[in-house]
Each structure stands twice: as structure tokens, then as C-alpha cells.
Amino acid sequence: MPTSMPDDYYRLLHDLQAVDFVLVELTLYLDTHPTDEEAVKQFNHYSSERKKLKKQIERSYGPLQQYGNSYSATDKWNWSDGPWPWQV
Amino acid sequence: MWLYEKKLQYPVKVSTCNPMLAKFLVEQYGGADGELAAALRYLNQRYSIPDKVIGLLTDIGTEEFAHLEMIATMIYKLTKDAKPEQMKQAGLDAHYASHDSALFYHNASGVPFTTAYIAAKGDPIADLYEDIAAEEKARATYQWIIDMSDDPDLNDSLRFLREREIIHSLRFREAVEILKEERDRKVFF
């Protein structure tokens, strides 16, 4: 079911999508330019930025990934809680 | 192993319920040059391509699944509030009769998805040229859908996808050059 989420959720999600866009672009670029050290440096920088953002989102809105790549809430299994990406 | 992340690669908003646009968009869901065909094509080619480009095929193939989810989200949002009468007017009557509002992997003319869309020649250069052509065809399809769409929010997401096809095409062209260089280095006299 479509859900209405607070503005903060959309802002954080937008920030993560922006950082991830940089990472996708750098990944594909490095796949064909593997010796570009400056690009590798940028990649590692944004990779650590993404980790911070992921943690921040998950603290308020639950796990982004599963199979153990995100922590579950302690009181219950909250992976199955919405909203799913197409519902927001 | 693949990992799912509970977020879209790029935001998808639609301005109004518009099943007609959903009918066009399904071309990129289950059509010959759509995102499903692209994902399956690249991931399948990895097993017979030289090591130097396996990473690229893996990463582009994976990104195509993110695009597939964006297309699904567009179709879902464009049709979720549509009444049967609106589905009928949009030419989705046959779809509605068989699938209700469920998504189905077929093209804009209702032809079910087939693996015949997925080329795999086993020749690295032939396969990469196929991939470049696939990206250019997908780019053209996005352009034509944008030309027919009057939904500014939807067009923003479609423009993002169109740009991704351009980048993928560029990277595949670079992969061809990498393989040609490697091939030429292996010639001994």
C-alpha cells in the first residue's frame, strides 16, 4: 500500500541516491579504466560516505539490505515492514 | 549472489494516473530491447567473455535490474488507481482481462517475453557489438516514449534512464577497444 513518509526520509534517500549515482558511475568507469588512481581515490571516499548514510537511514527507517548486510531491529524482524521502493 | 537494496536507483514520480503511458512503458519491461532482456543478456555473456570485461558485464547487468524496478514502479504508479473503464480506453482491456493490475513481461503490443531476444554468440567482439546495439535501441525507445509523454515527473525519470543507456554504450565501446588491444598483443611473429 502506498505510504506517506516524513520529509526527512525523502531527503536522506535522495542523499543516498546521489552518492550511489557517483559510485555506479565510478564503478563502470573503473571497470574500463582500472589504473586511474584519482578515480580509485574518489571511489573509496564515496564508499565510506555511503556507509555513513546507510547507517543513518537504517537507524530511523529500518534495514536497506538483508541476508545480514543490515542489522534487524532487536524487538522484531523489521525487514518485511514497508514501505517498499515503489510504494513511496 | 545478488543483494537487494530497499531503494530505487533514481526517484520515480508520476503526475497523474495514466494507463496509456503504462502501455507504452511495458515495452521496456518485457520487450526485445527492454531492461529484463538487457540484464539477462549481459549476465549470461559473462561465462564466455575474456576476464578483462567480466566486471563490466556484471556491473551493467546488475544496474539493468535496478532499471527494471524503476520501470515496474512507473507502470505500477500509472495504473494503480485506474478503473476498468480507463484500462479499456487505454487499450489495456486484453491485459486487464487476463492479468487485472498485475505486471506481466510482455511488450507494448502484448507479445510475451521470449529468450529469443537474448543474443549470445560466444564471440567476444560480436557479443559486445550486440550489447552496444542493444543500448542504442533502448536509448531510442526511451526517446520515443518521452516524445509521447506529457507527464513532466515521469519524463524526469525516463531522461535518467535514457542517459544511462548512453553511458553503457560508451563503456561497451571501451570494452571492445580493451579486447582488441589484448588480441593484438597476443600476435607473435
Write structural notes for this entry.
Chain B: Its cofactor is Mn(2+); Ca(2+). Chain B: This is Manganese containing catalase. Chain B: Keywords: Calcium, Manganese, Metal-binding. The complex is a heterodimer of chains A (88) and B (189). Chain A is an all-alpha fold and 88 residues long. Chain A has helices at residues 7-32, 37-61. Chain A contains two helices and no strands. The radius of gyration of chain A is 15 Å and the shape is elongated. Chain A starts with 6 loop residues before the first helix and ends in a 27-residue tail after the last helix. The model of chain A has no long low-confidence stretch (mean pLDDT 95). The model of chain B has no long low-confidence stretch (mean pLDDT 95). Chain B has eight helices and no strands. With 189 residues, chain B is mainly alpha-helical. At the A-B interface, helix 1 of A face helix 4 and helix 8 of B.
